Amino acid sequence: MLEWLSSNKEWIAPATSIGTLLVWLFYAQLLYSGYSRQTRPRILINKGVGEEGLDSPCLICNMSQEAIFIYFILVYLDNSKDPVLVPVTDCEEKAMNDDSSPLGSRTRQGPLDSGKCLELLSFRIILERAAAHAGIELENGRPVDPKVELGSMEFHVVCIYGSDDYPFGAVRKFNLKLDDEKTPAVVAATIDTQRKTSWRYKRKIRQWLQKNG
Which of 184, 176, 194, 155 is nearest to 79 (CA)? Predict the structure, then answer.
């Protein structure tokens, strides 16, 4: 063995150096992946108190290590008549008339600390607001016109994280279905909230900012 090592030392030393470099690169990749995972913003869009159906509140939870700043929140109502994109960041009329109310009661814009949840309106109120923009009359969450069908509500939370220079989007879709008793129900279409950072989505964000900002 010693003779073999001695006779092949010319290529063993470089091979050892390359192997050591590969090991260091592997550990560096593990460290970077862990750091990236810890510092990456994570926003959850969820349904609170699920037993209440349409009357359940929509929750925006910041599971990131740092605070986020919410620019605006939009909901896309998919339906058979006129799909619409409606902001839900604007104030409730009651809160707007009360200047002494906290800022969080008058607007859903602003910072959201790590580990905190922002409670939006109930799914029913958001649905009614979006349906009104689409010219759809509802009765107990169902279109009065039997020819009109509701598909889903897709939430877009546009925010910026920490010292990042560009905003990103957190998106989750909820399907609108009728249960066995023909009562409208909200069912999450995806297991988790999607984080949108593509250049195409950022271009949409710029367009929304120009329109809503």
Answer: 176
C-beta separation of 195 from 170 below 8 A: yes
- More confidently predicted of 139 and 40: 139
End-to-end CA distance of the chain: 74
Element housing 4 (H / E)? helix 2-7
How would you write 12-68 as a 3-class SS string?
HHHHHHHHHHHHHHHHHHHHHHHHHHHHCCCEEEEECCHHHHHHCEEEEEECCCCCE
> For the residues 41-48, what does the mean pLDDT come to?
90
CB 129 within 8 A of CB 88: yes
The mean pLDDT of the chain is: 80
- Residue 91: how many CA atoms within 13 Å on its side-chain side? 15
Domain ranges across the chain? 2-37, 41-212
The structure's pTM equals 0.76
Q: Distance between CA atoms of 14 and 5, rounded to whole angstroms? A: 13
The 3-state DSSP class for residue 159 equals strand
Residue found under tokens 């929304």 = 208
Give the tens place of pLDDT for each residue, 135-164.
Answer: 999 988 889 998 999 999 999 999 998 777
CA distance 79 to 148: 7
Q: Which helix (H) or strand (E) holds 206?
A: helix 199-212
